[in-house]
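Reader question, answered in our methods column.
A reader sent in the components of a multi-part assembly and asked whether the whole thing could be modeled at once rather than chain by chain. We filled in our standard form and ran it. Here is what they sent:
COMPLEX SIZE: two components
ENTRIES:
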Amino acid sequence: MSDGPIAIIAGHASFAEGMRSAIARIMGLGDRFIALSNDTMGTAEIEERLHELVNAHPIRAIFTDLPAGSCTIAARRLLKTRTDIVLVTGVSLPLLLDFIADEERPAAEAVTRAIDRAARAFGPGPGAARGH
Amino acid sequence: MAIELYRIDDRLIHGQVVVGWGQPLSLGFIALVDDEVASSDWEQELYRMGVPPEMDVYFATPEEAARRLGEWRADPRPGMLLTGDIDTMRRLTELCPEVRTINLGGIHHRAGREHKLRYVYLTPDEEASLRELAGKGIAITAQDVPAARPIDLDDVLSGKAEP
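And here is the structure of the entire assembly that came back:
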């Protein structure tokens, strides 16, 4: 397992740092993620910042908060030329926890498994996936 | 139903537009007026991806928008017209003098721009352009989301509207 960040969480306000800090608290692996807030940035600036980050770190996945959000738009543009990176929108904490717990797998596979498991975590009570 | 908002937002279609305004206004469509997006199928698909299926998105240059504005205003569904910068909105108002209100929804930081609000940064030329539009009787307010207080242009340009 390599050290350092392998994924970016990007979103509005303090969403990303909130997620990263929760991961750090729960699993102690907060440093595997870079948190990016879109505060004060237009879409072009977000895209530029994502470029900087994926060029500086071995990023395998980008997780964004909203499918329609500016972070997602910027990430989609970036991924036109970076097909080695997986994008997941509408990210949740369970999804991120499952992804990082599975980081030995190829990113696409880890993400698919994490999405499936996280989807089962939604629910009003009994019947939600165990382990979260 | 009228076009509810003529909005300048450099993020174009994004969360605040689709969810923040789209849900309270029950928007039926967004008209995205931008030369670059209007000429790119890929860009259009990019913006369509984030919009719920019940919301239509129309793409147009300012000239095309001027031709279609009557049709959009006659649409029974509430709509939003969106440009990514002041200059595009200015061009539209020159073609469509019936546009009498402009919402500053987001003009973000870039080199050369001064902070006015958390979500509005302007170069001197952009300020002048807004003043010129206001001088034509167009009411310009800044309001990023519906729950926020609309801020008049004079207060925006003073740079003192936020504590």
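What stands out: The radius of gyration of chain A is 14 Å. The first helix of chain A runs from residue 15 to 27.
Send us your own complexes using the same form.
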